[in-house]
Structure formats: C-alpha cells, structure tokens
Amino acid sequence: MLSFRLVYIFSYNLFQFCGHTWILANTIARFFTFGQDALADTFYSVGFVMSLCQLLSILELFHIADGIEKARLLPRFIQVVEKNFLLIMVIMLEEVQSKPVVCVQFFLWNILDLLRYPHELLRVMDTPSITMLWTRYTLWIPLYILSVATEGVTLYQALPYIEPAALNSTHIHPPVFLMVYLPVLALGASVTIWQLLKERQQHLEKWKKKMKRK
C-alpha cells in the first residue's frame, strides 16, 4: 500500500520535472522561432513558471530535514537561497529581465534540475539507474559551477539598476554590496561542490557494493 509520504514526494518531483521540461521546451522553441530576439523576453514568457518552481523548491529543505529525501541539507540550502535571491532581484528590476544573461541563467537552471528530478523520481520508484546516478553527480557539478558564474554576471549587470535610495536606506552602496555578496556566493558554491563530491562518492560506492552482492 502506498503511503502518503511516498505519493507526496513522487508528485512533487514529477511536478518539478514537468515544470522545468515546459520551461526548457518553451525557451528552445522560442529561440528557434524568433532567433536572438527571443532572448530579450525569456523572463516574460517563462518567468512565472520558473518563479513557482523555485519558490516550491524551498519545500525540499523540509523534505531533507524530515527524511523524506535522502540528501545533504547544507548544499541544498545554499542552492535554494542563491536561486531565490537572484530571482527576486530579477523580478524587482524590470531593466534586468530583458538581459540575455537571464535567458542563459534560466537555461542552466533548467538543465541542472532536469538532471536531478528524473533521478529523484527513479529513487522514489525504487528503480535506480547507474546512468542517471552518474549523470546526476558527475555532469551536474561542472554545470553548477557554470551556473554560479552566470549568477555572478547577472548580479554584476543588475547592479547599475539597483535603486540607490533603497541601498542608502540600509547604508549599503552598490560596490560594497557587490564586494560582499560575490565572495559569499563563491564560498557557498565551494562548500556545495565539496559536499556534492562527497555525496557522489558515497552514492557510487553504495552502487558498486550493491552490484557486487548480485
């Protein structure tokens, strides 16, 4: 008999997979249809669905804490915070929404999530795949590094549009904000990569031991 927890986590991962699949398909279709002009309105066409998926990803912190999902909490916390922080900034700054770097950022986020959620679905169904396992924990890491670098570029391009009045109210000036956040972003990414490498080694070793027992 299926438990509520199993049905819930399967439905969640399926929703995220379908959402990111739609975003990626929409982005690629628009690019082939409109060419480079599609880059400018990526946010307007897929921004709502992307925002919904990223907002719901906060639930994953509770999944891990509750034991529904087997993963490390710290790297997931860093990923959720950095994505939602950048997304809120883009939503607030209309001038940034039409930047091509936003399209690149969304594309990388989608690739990362489409490498992760199918693997999670297979784990929930207790039908793990070594191909998905290797892809999830090997190809994912260099793509994550590229995604973090793109986040830094997005932040840098958004900086001139940040309202000086809003920053002055907290006594923080744009250059200071950039100098503080970028090292924090780099540190968080380094910790995440270190944790993911340990998680990758752990999962691959478990798979090898499972294959030997067979």
From TrEMBL:
<keyword id="KW-0444">Lipid biosynthesis</keyword>
<dbReference type="Pfam" id="PF04387">
    <property type="entry name" value="PTPLA"/>
</dbReference>
<feature type="transmembrane region" description="Helical">
    <location>
        <begin position="44"/>
        <end position="62"/>
    </location>
</feature>
<dbReference type="GO" id="GO:0042761">
    <property type="term" value="P:very long-chain fatty acid biosynthetic process"/>
</dbReference>
<keyword id="KW-1133">Transmembrane helix</keyword>
<keyword id="KW-0443">Lipid metabolism</keyword>
<keyword id="KW-0812">Transmembrane</keyword>
<feature type="transmembrane region" description="Helical">
    <location>
        <begin position="12"/>
        <end position="32"/>
    </location>
</feature>
<keyword id="KW-0256">Endoplasmic reticulum</keyword>
<comment type="similarity">
    <text>Belongs to the very long-chain fatty acids dehydratase HACD family.</text>
</comment>
<dbReference type="GO" id="GO:0102158">
    <property type="term" value="F:very-long-chain (3R)-3-hydroxyacyl-CoA dehydratase activity"/>
</dbReference>
<feature type="transmembrane region" description="Helical">
    <location>
        <begin position="137"/>
        <end position="156"/>
    </location>
</feature>
<keyword id="KW-0456">Lyase</keyword>
<dbReference type="GO" id="GO:0030148">
    <property type="term" value="P:sphingolipid biosynthetic process"/>
</dbReference>
<dbReference type="InterPro" id="IPR007482">
    <property type="entry name" value="Tyr_Pase-like_PTPLA"/>
</dbReference>
<keyword id="KW-0276">Fatty acid metabolism</keyword>
<keyword id="KW-0275">Fatty acid biosynthesis</keyword>
<comment type="function">
    <text>Catalyzes the third of the four reactions of the long-chain fatty acids elongation cycle. This endoplasmic reticulum-bound enzymatic process, allows the addition of two carbons to the chain of long- and very long-chain fatty acids/VLCFAs per cycle. This enzyme catalyzes the dehydration of the 3-hydroxyacyl-CoA intermediate into trans-2,3-enoyl-CoA, within each cycle of fatty acid elongation. Thereby, it participates to the production of VLCFAs of different chain lengths that are involved in multiple biological processes as precursors of membrane lipids and lipid mediators.</text>
</comment>
<dbReference type="GO" id="GO:0030497">
    <property type="term" value="P:fatty acid elongation"/>
</dbReference>
<protein>
    <recommendedName>
        <fullName>Very-long-chain (3R)-3-hydroxyacyl-CoA dehydratase</fullName>
        <ecNumber>4.2.1.134</ecNumber>
    </recommendedName>
</protein>
<dbReference type="GO" id="GO:0005789">
    <property type="term" value="C:endoplasmic reticulum membrane"/>
</dbReference>
<comment type="pathway">
    <text>Lipid metabolism; fatty acid biosynthesis.</text>
</comment>
<feature type="transmembrane region" description="Helical">
    <location>
        <begin position="176"/>
        <end position="197"/>
    </location>
</feature>
<keyword id="KW-0472">Membrane</keyword>
